[in-house]
Task: structure prediction
Amino acid sequence: MFAVLLVAALAIAPQDSGTLLVRTLDVTDARIGGDAILITDSADGRARHLLIDAGEHGATVVRWLDRFHVDTLAAVILSHPHADHYGGMEDVFAHLPVRTFVYGGTPRTTVTYRRLLADIAARRIPVVTVDSGVRRLTLAVGGDSAVLTVFAPPPSCRALAGRAEGDAVNDCSIGVRLTHGGFSMLFPGDAEIPELAWWLEAPPVPLAADVLKAGHHGSDNATTPAWLDAVHPGAVMISANGRQHPFAGVLALLAARGIATYCTADNGTITVRAPRGGAWTVTPERSGRCHARTDT
Result:
């Protein structure tokens, strides 16, 4: 376990100075899903940015970063090596400086994944490999910091076959729990029931969180009653295109528990604001109710 201090800053104070912002970016389209989450800590009037995943369309992610005036990323975290999570990263690295790359070290022989790792090495970006235990990354400085606790996938992932696909790669996601003052948010990547069960049996960190980023784009193999019992979220964010995801059963489960649910397919980019000492709020880009997948 060790700490990495992340201090990338903008010269101009953002509009939400002093407030933690977590944006689930709308990076999906009719063909693909994908995840890209932008975290911005504006303590001391300086914005520090971190990106979890980068969808599959790099140009789309870059446009969002420009819209939010991101000129440096303190870190880029890859939850797991599927193209709808890392496909846009090369464009991001080419567009602006990235101070740190964090991933699980899961082996894969996919050409695009190997090319991404080669690009990171060529740019001499420091790499943090979370293949065991827990790492803590501190975003900002002083007493108003945001802390990301990054926890590893099961030990079997270190020996995953390089040609593994699908569920096996999903179950090698790294988890991230973000805290800022009294606020917390959990990002489980695309972890499915086997990995979630492993985390539940021997949790490396507390899993409870105010807001949950739904695993595997709202699939029923990643959101279960047991998982919701452990996290106990007040709101859930789902990044999905509305065709392949989310699943109707997941939306029904969340509705039955009275959990506020937001989907990028229906709400666009979704922003969570968490001021220190104040109540967190959710602001969708547009109003709308989450609809279940149409491609069945």
The chain has a mean pLDDT of 88. The domain at 3-284 is CATH 3.60.15.10 (Metallo-beta-lactamase; Chain A). The first helix runs from residue 58 to 67. The CA atoms of residues 220 and 247 lie 6 Å apart.
